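question for whoever is on the cluster today: can someone run the full assembly for these? four chains, 1692 residues total. i dont have access anymore since they changed the login thing
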Amino acid sequence: MSEPASNRGEIEALRLAYARIRAESEALASRLTPEDQTVQSMEDASPTKWHLAHSTWFFETLILSRWLRFYRSFDERFAYLFNSYYEALGPRHPRPARGLLTRPSAQEVLDYRRHVDQSMFSLLDDLPSRHEAEIATLIVLGLNHEQQHQELILTDIKHAFSCNSLEPSYVSSKPEAIESAAPLGWTSLPGGVAEIGYAGPGFAFDNEKPRHEVMLRPFRLASRLVTCGEFSDFIADGGYRRPELWLSDGWALVNRENWRAPLYWHDDDGREELFTLHGRSGRNRHEPVTHVSFYEAAAYAAWAGKRLPTEFEWERAARELQVDGNFLDDRRFHPRAARNQAGLSQMFGDAWEWTRSSYDPYPGYRSFEGAVSEYNGKFMIGQMVLRGGSCVTPRDHMRATYRNFFPPAARWQFSSIRLAEDA
Amino acid sequence: MSEPASNRGEIEALRLAYARIRAESEALASRLTPEDQTVQSMEDASPTKWHLAHSTWFFETLILSRWLRFYRSFDERFAYLFNSYYEALGPRHPRPARGLLTRPSAQEVLDYRRHVDQSMFSLLDDLPSRHEAEIATLIVLGLNHEQQHQELILTDIKHAFSCNSLEPSYVSSKPEAIESAAPLGWTSLPGGVAEIGYAGPGFAFDNEKPRHEVMLRPFRLASRLVTCGEFSDFIADGGYRRPELWLSDGWALVNRENWRAPLYWHDDDGREELFTLHGRSGRNRHEPVTHVSFYEAAAYAAWAGKRLPTEFEWERAARELQVDGNFLDDRRFHPRAARNQAGLSQMFGDAWEWTRSSYDPYPGYRSFEGAVSEYNGKFMIGQMVLRGGSCVTPRDHMRATYRNFFPPAARWQFSSIRLAEDA
Amino acid sequence: MSEPASNRGEIEALRLAYARIRAESEALASRLTPEDQTVQSMEDASPTKWHLAHSTWFFETLILSRWLRFYRSFDERFAYLFNSYYEALGPRHPRPARGLLTRPSAQEVLDYRRHVDQSMFSLLDDLPSRHEAEIATLIVLGLNHEQQHQELILTDIKHAFSCNSLEPSYVSSKPEAIESAAPLGWTSLPGGVAEIGYAGPGFAFDNEKPRHEVMLRPFRLASRLVTCGEFSDFIADGGYRRPELWLSDGWALVNRENWRAPLYWHDDDGREELFTLHGRSGRNRHEPVTHVSFYEAAAYAAWAGKRLPTEFEWERAARELQVDGNFLDDRRFHPRAARNQAGLSQMFGDAWEWTRSSYDPYPGYRSFEGAVSEYNGKFMIGQMVLRGGSCVTPRDHMRATYRNFFPPAARWQFSSIRLAEDA
Amino acid sequence: MSEPASNRGEIEALRLAYARIRAESEALASRLTPEDQTVQSMEDASPTKWHLAHSTWFFETLILSRWLRFYRSFDERFAYLFNSYYEALGPRHPRPARGLLTRPSAQEVLDYRRHVDQSMFSLLDDLPSRHEAEIATLIVLGLNHEQQHQELILTDIKHAFSCNSLEPSYVSSKPEAIESAAPLGWTSLPGGVAEIGYAGPGFAFDNEKPRHEVMLRPFRLASRLVTCGEFSDFIADGGYRRPELWLSDGWALVNRENWRAPLYWHDDDGREELFTLHGRSGRNRHEPVTHVSFYEAAAYAAWAGKRLPTEFEWERAARELQVDGNFLDDRRFHPRAARNQAGLSQMFGDAWEWTRSSYDPYPGYRSFEGAVSEYNGKFMIGQMVLRGGSCVTPRDHMRATYRNFFPPAARWQFSSIRLAEDA
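^ ran it for u. tokens below:
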């Protein structure tokens, strides 16, 4: 989602964006039964229904309750149930217990969405002029926030379904496979001072700012993501049993959790299979490996004699490219093998790329103002940056400067590996 | 549920019992939404849907698959999903993850029940004569098993609802309250040799057998259960802060979990409230205290200068009484204050009574034969015996010799306290 | 240790017992370096130095501080450091951190013992006549308490040494081995009313009282303990991999902890070895298996088609025997194979015998009075009774009515198995 | 410790450094009893004796066993006992169980040191000329390694002593206090390209290399460390109860662990005290706050309206200063209040300074070769960089480019806070 709006035409665009993005969340949920929408398969994940309600709570709490005159909340208890982590907005339902909320029902959550949407349209019809810019900014933030939860709806239900031996599918039709991945090439990029971070007029998260200068050394990026076939070679070469390839915490985790392959791989009885949003399926050696942790990405790079790029190298390379690729909009719900093309492919879409950069604040970083100051800044510890978006990210949510972040052990996102090396 | 059957009339009675008890489970579940039926609020509890499917799996696995010719399983994967703890019957879905089973849906579970019920009726129409007695015995066991899960459906959903700040009700209408509890009296019982355990012709669990002699000393039993009001006095007198009243493990638990009252009590802002199957409600000082652990029961008894009865004392007193009281059949779903009556009241129904007896095997104990040998025997460690049934136990499931058992820390059952003392 | 004393001769006997038992503790510790005496290898165990100080604290706190006029405590801070679990006697150093007490040094603990011993002798020289009986009773209790800690000094240091790959020995000389165990026979015992519990004039713990009648069925006891060789047969027959042999909690533990043999067994490279207080040693197939949990004892019995005796059966059989056997006084520090003899052997000494009895209070149980009321009663939950004493129990500490108790998972005591069966 | 050596004079200097640094470790340990040297108070810490043996193991395993002809190991089992984390050098004694090693005794560890030292001197007498440079490099590394463990000996024993209510002192004499801290000033530093990392001829760790260019913005550094008095103001202003000041993980930790002040602060009954290596002592408001986690440092900075410096800013400022300050060599064992002086004070010594930089590899980072490749690189995840050394760091161990690192929750090091702000 792009920038805030300050005149009639811009407000109209905002209304359309609101309608479109809010509808998309419900479209994604509509493939799921009420029971599917209720469960939480691990503390990191949330129920579909909770995502639908929480993204609605965001508009209600941060916008309607402040600026819509005579706004009556749908149910005052939802302020407690659907606050995620905003300390400034009061206590909240405990995160690990989100999957116990059989009530409100999926239908009641849709009613809640109706109520808030109608109120938002009322507000957009009659924006208080003194606060027009501020409200528009918050709406754009709310829509970008909702898009983030669209991605989580899909990665979270994938995890929940994977815990059921019936292995339900989120979608039944399988996408066409590309028969062979493009060969691995290398693209050279120059060193020197690079401008990093967002500086345009449109929307960007606070963590992408301010634009600042970073000194780079010349480097090379792999032309595409590491494939399942290549990752299988790593495994066959003892990748998960050779401590010298691993960071110390990663090696401890591999042994504690007995990791032997990426999440969702199944190799029982010699079959090479994968759990996907289409259910269990044969594993395509040409498609990008996904659902690897940072630890696995770094171990693979060590094994290959390469390294992971920094987030600055990645952004330096990406800023000259179109934001194009295999996104949520394409309704594949799965990454696709790289096509043969010149230069870098799969930089956007398909799968997030772990970088060798800790999620630290940029020099001069200032968080958003007000309650949304908790949006990003307080998570800047213990996490690694991922770049580029995935097959379940909305295309217009993505930018070259976009910084996603997860702890190094996380595997349930569509996370993959792009190699780099010094020039 | 009573005894096995071996002729036409008895088989007809069995068919009727089957139809009635199976229908009762579905009636209990029918007050719940599909979402309610899906969740699991703690490892000890299970989803409603799982209870409905597991009790069906019991008939399918232990009876139909062995004796109904040409029986085709409804879904072979259910053998894995709905096995509870029978090692002899293969691996099973992990217990703590039962609440992730969004599929099969509540409707599919009902379909599964239909399929198994029809097959069971077919089998009853044409019982293989050589195995008639064995099959009838297993059916009776299966029905008693199903009745145990009826009670768990209610105690488990009560726990799940209590985790939701919306505090849903299982039933909306509140039962009439009795205005005052009978005063506490004492009934004397003689010592000497008592016959303990089941020896009749009807059904009883293996853990109730064999009947054997136990030497008792003369003792007295309180005429009714401890009330909420009496338990409040214990609290007001520092009951939860005085280590000398507690068993060592209990004291550690009180402090680790910061227990200050029975489970489901709410005393915010001076209100004396309770979470019930009817939702949040004012607390009736006259009704029996429930949802206390064995530790709390023993601490209360120590505070009162009394003790808990042994299971043998309880049975000695109960065997002369009618099995009557406030049971599931009464649809109160909540205990009731003791009525004024001569002798012992509330011995059956209302609430389970913790005894000062560890759940050890009786002398000469033999477990059931075959796969159902795992039914009771393997749990005879680390648990305490409770007696008498509760307001969510089916009346015809109860007997004076019935031994229920839970770990001393368990609080989510309708468990209460009856005092005893040496004569 | 035997009974309290109330006249001159008895007081003199008490003084001698005091001198002898206190000296024995120090003799046991004297084989250990100050460093050995400092560490704690798990929460259940305690450092040698702590045992020496805690048993001294007992005399100081419960006797000297009350009855020795002008008694000056050695160091007031020791009241906090060396209280074990007496809530009535104030807060205490956390149990899991006992192994961090580098100070006081082993020498200072000996000085503390000197100080208390001298004060105790002063008190014995001039007992306040009004309290003579009470004080004598507490001294006898304190000496029995000290003897219990003598056993723990040895089992705890054995565990600590087993955690060190240098495998230190507590004693260097190995005891002579008996070449072959007596063949397994069975002794029949009659049913009927048995008098259980202590009723004599001498000392017994409160948990052995009151004497009361228990109804027994006729039964048989194995003539000796299960041997290492027999237990090896159980292992070879898949004993640790067959769930049908195990109690449910035991089976979970076997898998969680990956148990494949008793504690301290080593079978690397086909060698049959054992860690002992003499260091690593070859395993004698004829000697009793030790360091098994109740779960392993019960599983072995199930495999053998037998059962464990109840504590009442054991006591019924033991009460006619001399308290004789392989005790601490023999300085073997290890069990010995059963000699050929008529009737029951190894009932006393060698190794504790797990019974199929939960550690419940006897009918009419009353705890000791005063602070020592916490001695036994508050632990009467979640534990199983063991009988008979071991090769590290002082002989004069043992009685037919003596009830030892440990949680069913405990393995670091010299605990073994005697089989029983119905007659 | 400085650089490797390649001719006679340099080897002689190396021999002297070896003798001096090895002796220093033993001097530090000599203030402790054998018992003190044995215990481990938490998994992060190690026993003194283990530090002494492990730093010796380093020379034995990495140098003597490879290059000293006919070298006979002191005890082959020590290779297992005293390997810290080198996967390439085989399995090792479990880290959390280091405190159970009562054997070898403190004296045996000293004998081990003698044995290795004599062998090292033999090797230095007759260095194989082809490997002279390589060996010299490893010796210098070994000595720097030993110096790191000197610091840990002191911080680990401080923690162990703090767990004992006797509160032993490491040293008895208290250092003189400076009566008032210098007022807080600010030093401006320019932006632009800064050369970061080590590039000289002497020794530096691999993590300090390669020197590379980093782009800085103009910034200001506080002239001294935050004092105890200033940190008390933060506490009095609700610092530990205001979520808006904290990173999310830090806030969770504060609540989980109930942190209310830095580690080792005691404010019982209104006294302002501190546990130090000199025992319990009054708290000097002028001395630097220490034993704060990164989370507390960042929360303090947020409260003060400032921020923490990046490690690059810190190094940019430090590279023009003398490496001078309050170090281990001064035998104060405690930080000192800042003296009045122009510019930056306390940059070196007194206390480590948390930076707002994750411990990531420098561009072009290459780990050491061989087994010591595990020295630093594998820990480059989940940790934050600290700079400047402390009052228990040897002075000649410190450099402006030196990067220390700990997880953000660590508090048992002498870690403090220096504020920064954008210019």
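summary bc i know u wont read the tokens: The interface with chain C takes residues 85, 87-88, 193, 212-217, 243-244, 246-251, 294-295, 310, 356-361, 363-364, 373-374, 378-382, 408, 422 of chain B (CB under 8 Å). Confidence is low (pLDDT under 50) at residues 1-5 of chain B.
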